Structure formats: C-alpha cells, structure tokens
TrEMBL record:
Feature: compositional bias, Low complexity: 53-72
Residue span(s) of domain DEAD-box RNA helicase Q: 201-229
Reaction(s) the record says it catalyses: ATP + H2O = ADP + phosphate + H(+)
The species this protein was found in: Syncephalis pseudoplumigaleata
Alphabetically ordered keywords of this record: ATP-binding, Helicase, Hydrolase, Nucleotide-binding, RNA-binding
Protein name (Swiss-Prot/TrEMBL): RNA helicase
SUPFAM superfamilies reported in the protein's UniProt record: P-loop containing nucleoside triphosphate hydrolases
EC number(s) per entry: 3.6.4.13
Disordered, as annotated region: 1-97
Domain (Helicase C-terminal) ranges: 454-603
Segments of skewed composition (Basic and acidic residues): 23-33
UniProt key word Nucleotide-binding: yes
Coiled coil (residue ranges): none
Length: 648
C-alpha cells in the first residue's frame, strides 16, 4: 500500500486555509485575498519530494524530505499569515485540523463531483485539495502534478505551467496517436513537434473560471476553430508554438485565451506586485488596440486583470501611468515596447514576460532593421535580468502566429524557441478558401470608373466593403470621389495620418450602416483587422507582394463567412502573376471567377508546353492548362508533387 504523507492541504498548495468548498462558495472565493507566491513553489516542491520519497519506500530520503517540509512550514505559514488580509487569516487550530488531512494520490483524470462533494473552482470536477479560503484555488491536479508525472506535454518546466496544470480532456486523451492524427487530418490541421497535446474539441473541456467561461460565451465563442483546437492545448501546456492559419480562422483567440488563463493564475499569485506577465507584440497600433479590446471583453469581471496598450501612436506618460497601476497583459508595437523596457524605472517591479506572443510575425521581421529590433526586444523581455531566469530553466513561452510565412520565421527566433509545437491549418501561405476571387484587367486611368460601377451594383457586389489603395493621397481622393459618384454610398478613408482616435472609432464600430465603404492604405489595415461585417474587399491597387494580397483578401470571409474579393490588375503588377497563378490553380474553381484574357495570355508566354496533363480546376477558371509534375520536398523534408502551369 502507498504510504500517506500527513501535511496540511493548504501548505501543499502554498496557500492558506483548509476547508472544503462547493460551487456555491466560488463567488466569495474570487473576492478573497491572495497568498504571496514565494511560499508556493518551494513548499509544494518539497511536499512533492517528500511524497515521492515516501512512495518509493526510501525511508531515509522520506525522513529528510518530511523534516525539511516540516521545518520550514511554520515560518512560511507565519509569513503567509502576516501578508494575508485579516479576513483571510486563520488560526493555528485550522492548521491542526488541516494536518489531519491525508495527501491523496494524484489522479490523472478527475471524476465529476457528486452532490455535496468538494468541487475544484478551476476545473469544476471533484477536488481533493481544495482550499476554500483563498480566491485563487488551483485544481488538485496542479498541486499534485510534478513534472515527472506529466512529462509529456511539458518538456520545458515553466513556473506558470504549474499554476494552470493543463491536462487534456479524457474524451480526447483516450485516443491513440494515430487516431488523433486522423482527427487532425479531418480538420486540415497539421501539427509537428514532440509530444503534441491532443485536440481541444470543446471549450467546456477546459478548466476555466466560471466568469471566463461565461465571457467566452458572451463574446460568441461556442466551439473552437481548427487552429484553436490545436494551439490552445499546446499553449496551456506551456509549449512554445509556431502557428500558420488562414486569415479569419481565429488565431487571436487561440493565443489570447491561454494568455488570459496564465495571466489570471499569475496575477492571483502575485497580487499587489502588478507586473505584466504577457506581452503580445503586433506590427501596428490598430491591431494591438483590437487585441486589447478582445482581451478586455474576455477579462470582464476577472479581478486584477488589467491591460495596457503600448504603441508609438500615443504619448508615453499615460502609458507609464497605466503600467504603474499594475497590468497583467501588455499589447504593443516593437519600437515603443523596446523604448519602454529600456527606460523601465528601478522603482517598478520588472515585467516577467512569461508569455510572449508575436502576431503577424513575418511582418515583424520583414526587414533587417525590424529583425534586429525584434531580437533586441526579445533579449530585453527574456534577458538574464528578468526575475526567475535561470531558476526555472526557460521561464518564457514564445508563440508565433501569421497567415503567411510563420513557419519560415522560426529560424530567426531559434534562440528563444524551445521545442515548439508547429501548427498549420490547410495549405501554408494560402488565401482563405472562404473568399471568392474575381480579377479585372483595368488600366490605371480606368480604375476609378470601374470602381464606381462596382459600388453602384450592390446586388452583385454587396457592401460593406474595404477598398485598398497604395497611397494616402489616393485614399483621400478616392473616398471623396466615391461620395460624389456613388449616390447613397457613404465612404470614409483611413491612412497612417488619420488620427488614432478616429481610426479606433471606425474599427470599434466595425462597418456600421452609416459607413459602407472604407478606403484604406494597404500598409495600415491589410493585416489582422477584423470587421466581421465586411463582405467585399476591392484591391484597387494590387499589392506588391503575394503575402499582402493574401492578407488583404482575408479582410472578407471572417470566421467562415462567405466573402468576395475583386482585384484590379494590369501590367504594373506583372511581377506577381506567376506566383498568383500558381496559388489560384490550387483553389477550387468555385472560388475563382474566370480570369481576364490578358492574364491567361501571360501564363501562355511564360510557360511553354512541357506536359500533357490537363488540370481540370484550372480549365474551369478559363486557363487551358497543362501541368508539369515534378518532385520536390516540403519544409519538413517530406516528398511532395509540385505542379506548374505550362500552357494555355
Ligand atoms: N471559436 C470561434 N467561434 C466563433 N467565432 C470565432 C471563433 N474564433 C474566432 N472567431 C471570430 O472569427 C473572426 C476572425 O478571428 P481572428 O481575427 O482571430 O482571425 P485571424 O486568424 O487572427 O485572422 P487574421 O489572420 O486576418 O488576423 C473574429 O470575428 C472572431 O471573433
């Protein structure tokens, strides 16, 4: 029989109190004081050491371990007691009572609680080690689970992982690796890396605080999208992640939810210190602002979950003020974040940067200057002066996201990535399949006229729409021209010089019925901006890079909704035709309207006859295509067949 170690449950958790509570106590617990964390880790570690020594029947080791636990418990208990508010202090009698409680064996799958049994406030299931006098109870699994028990999903020991202690839901964990792979295949999920956690099939399978669960529902998130199915479990298991998923596929929630869960656990543990624990870095102010709103929505009603927006768009003093007040999550652009970290006053607690998310990561490093800025920033966020560094191995968790080239950037971030889980949804670097694409060959001087025709035909081209142009002046003039030439259509323009507050107001409102067309410069809103009402994207100026085309088109077709993209092309964008045709070829014919004859002619000149294999898809969209099939290897070294268009 396994020997039982008698220690107070609260001490094992590094917390106060010893009673058990059910679901009805949860609201009260949420408001009560939090215990200081320094006591948490060493105590629980020692408790586990003692427990393991006892389990292994090594009596000498067990005696030493138990003694060490006992010898420090009183001092730490006093410290905890002093630090805690009077309402939550407990008497020695409580401790005595708690000492009588045996530590139970760690249970891999916790069963549902029966009526009147203790319920874990985190997972809502039966909880053996619940302490109901703190507001931030952790499931017994997190207290009892040592890395030796759960090595599979947590190869890098991270402090915050202990607080969250993610375990896959039994309904998915029971499947063998090849069965899980079949599920992934069905959802077009490709995951690479060691020990990939099983998919998350339902948000209800997560051990979330009630408030967060209801915020999720209120925000309209009912079932995870494919990228969320794989990224959320990996991120909750404290794994580094590199994820590529099409535009509009839900990458934001895929990283926000784990960030909030971790930050909530930490802000509870470090109550009063007010450090940022999570840094989400994105290339533009507008994108950061959008993430901050989404996070605020999800954090509503969660205590001590403040956010800060740190971008060059706003003056520094209010940003310092905000940081001084204490925030858990920071959303920012690289330049301003770097500056803020550079001048971080010694009087303020250093940020911990347990989780760093880089969204639109390919854009963050698309030039040498930006790449070196990102390296500098990561150096500051994870550098040796950061607390806990060295003590806990690799305390930071890095997650990289983009719809394009995310996997390729992982080489740049190699020094900071530890055994990442790589996730790809659908084909890499591909336009979203939810948008139908139409191309018109339009010479530059005829573009405006063509645009007015489109906007005056709401049956075929339903509004609201975003029109992308290259220049600021172009955006202003075009918005004015639309107002004149398209009666009843209300148009606005946004570009880099539009005041931040005005841009945010437009973004916040989405595209309301009073504004049906927004003319935007591509550099500003091509990436990440989420306006779910947008049905139509018009690329008035074809972007210079195919990646940017993919992102621009992706402003329509959000969250699986059908969208439409119309692109004006002419000889000026010739350099893109080859890659564009290559990409279109792999899409179903229903997603690409018949191509203009000029584009088809280009394909003919470019590719002489080399093969006689006809491509039915391409034929349907108007290219009389023969394809050459050659062997190639993909990024992972696997053999693939690559087809190229060779004749029209
Ligand atoms: N699980 C979900 N259920 C319902 N809607 C969702 C879910 N996840 C995300 N969405 C919605 O889908 C839309 C697109 O999500 P999101 O902005 O995260 O996409 P993205 O992958 O980041 O796109 P982009 O690459 O363009 O930045 C948003 O309006 C979001 O609210």
């Amino acid at each position: 029989m396994t020997p039982t170690l008698l220690v107070p449950r609260a001490v094992l958790l590094g917390k106060r109190g010893g009673g058990r509570g059910g679901a009805s106590d949860r609201g009260d617990r949420e408001k009560r004081a939090r215990s200081p964390v320094p006591a948490l880790l060493p105590v629980s570690k020692r408790a586990r050491t003692a427990s393991r020594a006892l389990s292994s029947n090594d009596t000498a080791a067990a005696a030493t371990a138990t003694e060490s636990l006992d010898s420090t418990t009183d001092t730490e208990r006093e410290a905890i007691n002093d630090a805690a508010p009077p309402s939550s202090r407990h008497s020695e009698d409580d401790d005595d009572a708690a000492f009588d409680e045996p530590v139970k064996e760690f249970a891999y799958y916790q069963r549902p609680a029966l009526p009147d049994e203790p319920v874990c406030v985190v997972c809502g299931r039966y909880g053996e080690y619940i302490s109901d006098t703190t507001e931030h109870d952790v499931c017994s699994r997190s207290a009892a689970a040592a890395p030796s028990i759960m090595p599979i999903y947590r190869p890098v020991e991270r402090f915050h992982a202990h607080l969250v202690a993610y375990q896959p839901h039994p309904s998915m964990a029971k499947y063998a690796a090849d069965e899980l792979e079949a599920f992934r295949l069905a959802k077009h999920i490709k995951a690479r890396g060691r020990h990939i956690p099983p998919l998350l099939a339902d948000f209800d399978h997560l051990t979330l605080p009630d408030q967060l669960r209801s915020n999720l529902r209120d925000a309209g998130y009912h079932a995870p999208t494919p990228v969320q199915m794989q990224v959320i479990p990996a991120a909750l298991a404290a794994r580094d992640v590199v994820a590529a998923a099409p535009t509009g596929s839900g990458k934001t929630l895929a990283f926000l939810l784990p960030c909030i869960v971790h930050a909530y656990a930490l802000s509870g543990a470090f109550h009063g210190e007010g450090r940022p624990y999570v840094f989400v870095v994105a290339p533009t102010h507008d994108l950061c602002a959008q993430f901050e709103w989404a996070a605020q929505k999800l954090c509503r009603g969660l205590p001590d979950m403040r956010t800060a927006l740190i971008t060059g768009e706003r003056p520094i003093p209010p940003q310092w003020h905000r940081l001084h007040r204490g925030v858990s999550l920071v959303f920012g652009t690289p330049g301003r974040l770097d500056r803020i970290l550079e001048t971080w006053p010694s009087t303020m607690a250093r940020p911990r940067a347990d989780i760093i998310v880089l969204d639109e990561v390919d854009r963050l490093v698309d030039s040498e200057v930006k790449e070196s800025l990102m390296r500098q920033l990561l150096g500051k966020l994870t550098g040796p002066e950061m607390p806990m560094r060295g003590e806990m191995g690799h305390p930071h968790q890095l997650m990289l996201f983009s719809a394009t080239r995310a996997w390729r950037t992982r080489r740049i971030f190699k020094p900071w990535l530890h055994d990442p889980v790589r996730v790809a949804i659908g084909d890499l670097d591909m336009v979203t399949p939810d948008v139908r694409q139409t191309f018109f060959w339009v010479e530059s001087n005829a573009k405006k006229r063509r645009l007015f025709l489109l906007l005056n035909d709401p049956i075929r081209y339903p509004l609201p729409a975003i029109v992308f142009v290259e220049s600021r002046v172009g955006a202003e003039l075009l918005a004015k021209a639309i107002a004149k030439r398209c009666p009843g259509v209300r148009a606005r323009h946004v570009h880099g010089e539009t005041p931040g507050a005005e841009r945010e107001a437009i973004l916040h409102a989405g595209l309301t019925s009073s504004t049906e067309v927004i003319v935007a410069t591509s550099g500003l809103w091509a990436r990440g901006i989420d306006m779910p009402r947008v049905r139509l994207v018009i690329n008035f100026d074809m972007p210079r890079h195919l990646d940017e085309y993919i992102h621009q088109v992706g402003r329509a077709g959000r969250a699986g909704e059908a969208g439409r993209a119309v692109t004006f092309i002419n000889d000026e964008s010739k350099s893109l035709f080859r890659d564009l045709l290559e990409m279109l070829r792999s899409l179903p014919s229903s997603k690409v309207d018949s191509l203009p004859v000029e584009l088809r002619r280009y394909a003919a000149q470019r590719h002489p006859i080399e093969s006689v294999l006809a491509n039915p898809h391409a034929r349907q969209i108007g290219i009389q295509v023969y394809t050459a099939i050659d062997r190639a290897t993909d990024e992972e070294g696997a053999q693939i067949h690559r087809q190229s268009i060779i004749h029209t």
